[in-house]
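My main concern about presentation is that the manuscript never shows what a single data entry looks like. An entry of this sort, consisting of the sequence and the corresponding C-alpha cells, reads as follows:
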Amino acid sequence: MPKIVIENLFNRTINFTDTSRKVIELIHENNIDWMHACGKKGRCTSCKMILVAGQENLSDPSDREIYFRKLQRLGLNERLSCQCELPEGEIRIRVADINKFPHLEYSE
C-alpha cells in the first residue's frame, strides 16, 4: 500500500489505495493544511514538498516542474505536490520553511 510520511508534521502518515490522485489531493483529503496559492495548477511553487526519501516512487517530473527547476525555484530534491502521483511505495517529505502555515505546529 502506498504511503506518505510528512516528517516535520510529527511523522503524520497517509496510507491510501487510489494511486491516480495527486499527492496534494491525498494530503488535503486527510485534513492536513498544505499551501497551494495557484489552486493546484502548477503555476507557482507554494505546494512544493522536500523529498527526504522515495523520490524514485513518484511519477516523472511534469513540464511545470522542469520549468521551475530551470528557473532554480525547485531543487532536485523538491517536487510540486500538485503535479505528481505516488503509484507505489513510500515517500518521506517535509514542508518547506517558506511554505509553513503560522497556525500549525511543526516538529523538527
